[in-house]
Amino acid sequence: MGFNVLGRCQSGRGLAGSRKGANPCGMSKHNLELIRATRPLTKQVGRRTLEQRLIQDHAVSKDHVIRALTLQQHQRAPIDRILVSEGWASQDQVLDALSSQHKIPKVDLSGHNPQARLLARKPAGFWLRHSVLPWMQLGQTVVVAVSDPNKLNTIRSDLAASFGEVMPVLASESQIQQLLVSHFRKDLAVEASSRLPLAYSCRTMRRPDWSGATAVLALGLLLTALAFPRHAFALLCGVALFTLLLFTLLKCAGFISHIQTIRSRRQIELPIASRSKFTSPRHRRPMISVLVPLYKEAEIGRALLRRLCKLTYPRSLLEVLLVLEEEDDITRDAIRCADLPDWFRVIEVPAHGGLTTKPRAMNYALNFCRGEIIGIWDAEDAPEPDQLDHVAAAFAKGDGALACLQGALDYYNPTQNWISRCFTLEYASWFRIVLPGIARLGLVVPLGGTTLFIRRDVLEQVGGWDAHNVTEDADLGVRLSRFGYRTDMLPTSTYEEANCRPWAWIKQRSRWLKGFMVTYLVHMRSPRLLLKQLGWRQFLGLQAFFLGTVGQFLLAPCLWSFWLITLGLPHPTAPLLPAGATYLAGVSLVFFELLGLVIAITAACATGRRSLALWAPSLILYFPMGVIAVYKAVYELILKPFYWDKTAHGHSPKSRTQKLG
């Protein structure tokens, strides 16, 4: 399946109807190599009843069955899933063959209304997870529609206590899912908004009551500042320097760890996770479900499909879920213009309570995931083709404490303008230098919103995502550490579009800073419990990240005042401080800026973009935009804490044309 100039997939009647060889979207180069290397498997065609029936019905050719059997030796995936995912058979053809093989009648569920009393005997998650629907009751027997007859024994065992005797019929997964969604629609929408327990959620945050104690406290602080302005300013300067010190220590720790890694391993992005791809036949490759939340993405949908079709991971073990709001006609129309492969699915999130956030959409879509590993990509992302192979290898070699992998984020439009250059340097500094160092030191890893992969069982254990938190990624990273799990960095990159317009940059950064404030306030509700769960090292690391990140922007005017000293001018707080204190503060500020400069230059070299190092000195003019963003964040934190300021994408020409080798 290829793409024409308009971005549509070319496959006749779709990927499932393709019958002529492999194509870029349906068969990876790795799979082709496996097939060529193991042609002698021709004698195995007749050994499997399902394959025999497909050949007898002329649903699939012998050559395609041979290829599927070859791939199965390496992928260890069901043969029917391989045939469909590679485009050699359709879902209907496979369903007919399964019906004949297992002697189970095939039914058409269109126009059927599910029986509420039967569905009420199990939670929605059970029916969706197993793709099972209680169709009708005949006396003491319940007729159950299933999409995978190979799971019948497990389904019978799970339903025995609720239904007694069960008689199966075969139906398409799409019909079963559609009927389940229509019945549980409201329940699933409510659960998506409130999945996380209140103790860990920010949804209890509301506007402060300015008529009571809050107003009295605010007025008292204002009057004190007016009565003692110099003392108040000195106090703010002290707090600013403290937060700067915290963040400086965090960056130093990450940078030193990076230097030590270079010396010991002679590689620049070797975190805890292994760099090797999945090659061992002793481990079964995991099924991976990747969520791609979309919202009003008319400009980027087709480019996204082209990028994801370059992935080398076996199609039979991969599914991509495009997640959009049901009222988002813009994205829906864009998706209609594309002929989606069978390993793509579209999940529409029903509206509820006016909340349209990315974490809420992912909570809803989690119900429909088949994978053991849940991944996240954003709409503008261009992951490296072998990224999922690295994911599978890292989890296969990891221990039980490894719950999540965070990949490096990079930009494919770094030279578009000055802001994009600085943004690329900032991301490279964080994802190539500081964050891997934090992970190596065993500190809390504040996750990025994309290119993260998490074990599904762990994700469900910690409560999924906080639907009301606008930086659900950082919040999830803290929660994983509180539950005793570890996040490793993944030695692979995802390329996305750098925000290169001033106001769009401020809006995006404002959302991040507001989310950091919310996350910190939520987890610091009970500091003693947090300290007990994290331990001193992780607890102090968490303080350094959140207080340092927010404080350096929120109190930036106080920090800027120390530049007066470098100009030979007295600092306003000098009379209140011991001799030399202001000079020490000035030196600390200079050291912080020089540290950031060194890290940025190192990061530019680490990404192979040495020319960007020339722009590192201009970062001192780039970060003041964050001051505007942080005060916008404070305003929204007070008046609309759950407001998600959408970041617009697709403005870079490369977002439509960029191709990664």
UniProtKB/TrEMBL annotation:
Domain Type II secretion system protein GspE N-terminal: from-to ranges: 103-187
InterPro entries on file: Nucleotide-diphossugar_trans, T2SS_E_N_sf, T2SS_GspE_N
Organism domain of life: Bacteria
EC number: 2.4.1.-
TM ranges: 210-227, 233-256, 539-563, 583-605, 612-634
Keywords per UniProt: Glycosyltransferase, Membrane, Transferase, Transmembrane, Transmembrane helix
Keyword Chloroplast: no
SUPFAM superfamilies listed in its UniProt record: EspE N-terminal domain-like, Nucleotide-diphospho-sugar transferases
Family: Belongs to the glycosyltransferase 2 family.
Name of the protein: Poly-beta-1,6-N-acetyl-D-glucosamine synthase
Organism: Phaeobacter italicus
